[in-house]
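@channel anyone free to eyeball this complex?
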Amino acid sequence: MCTVCGCSEGESRVEGVAVHDHKHEHDHKHEHSHAHEHNGDDHHYGHGPAHAHAPGMSQSRMVQIEQDILGKNNEYAQNNKSMLAAKGILSLNLVSSPGSGKTTLLTRTLTDLKDDLPMVVIEGDQETSNDADKIRATGAKAIQINTGKGCHLDAHQVGHAIEHLDPDDTSVLFIENVGNLVCPAAFDLGEAHKVAILSVTEGEDKPIKYPDMFYAADLLLLNKIDLLPYLDFDIQKCIAYAKKVNPSIQILKVSATTGEGMDDWYQWIKLSRQSKLIGFKKQA
Amino acid sequence: MHEMSLCEGILQVLETEASTQKFKKVKTVWLEIGELSSVEIEALKFSFDVVMKNSIAKDAKLEIIRVAGSAWCMQCSEPVKIKKRFDECPQCGSSQLQVTGGTEMKIKELEVE
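replying in thread with the prediction:
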């Protein structure tokens, strides 16, 4: 376990550098000043909670801990949240299955909004920095997290990535999660909203096949709608399924290729960002 | 399939608890897993043994307490039982349900030495 922040060993890397490869400065002194009292060669069996020992009884005891399994992750997520709030940053966690057009949608967004908003990107993939390279080609600052064997980003990796990125105050942070509709649902990264992207080339029943993700998302982007005429995709059915899982989910139909519907998405981003700026004061 | 990461999370908690509560060995772990949480119990059991190897919880027994899914139906104004996240109200058929229980993933209790 990493002794700086308590992260467990893993395969994840930020820009090719292992996440727990921070500087470990070992300048603490190891002082052993406690007295070891040994009372001869006595064997103590009575040091259990009952201070007694019955033959054949073990000294095991029960400990009530009532802790959330994801407690550690949620702690990191909370830290990220306060770090982002202090800078007036809107963070969006983009989740989808692989091939839904997340990266294309993101590069188009970055290009179209370049002059309107300061934007930075955290890219999550199992391997390669191809996506971060594509993002950087738009001029936006981006950092790649490779999760190795991991199937999702966690709040700890994202926290380190935010530190590396050092985004300007009031910017929009896009976190492109690993293409996976299962695991990223459970891991809070400290984002303001999860945005699910579903392309119409996938099944219309995805929302009920992967309900956790669509339940966790605040916005659903139905992407690739330019392909609808060639497909057997029942868009009304898909919307009904999504609403069934999450009655409050907002749904926008877009095409990152033709640009159709993208203005709605941009407006959504701007309005969400505005809400983060309420009461925000630039630190001197 | 994030059961492996969940088990790593459990081990982290166990190690932290071991130093604060002063124990050296974990013999049994009781987990509370809601029926609406996206946890596959068989996968969790498998990952648990793998992750706990060479740790303070080596060979520890894993006991799982299932918590049934429950929700509040806006139409009936009553609590109802559900099996899946997108279930309709078993009484009125409405899908306006607010999930109230069954999503927990908790370490409840430990038997330690």
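from a first look: Chain B has a mean pLDDT of 92.
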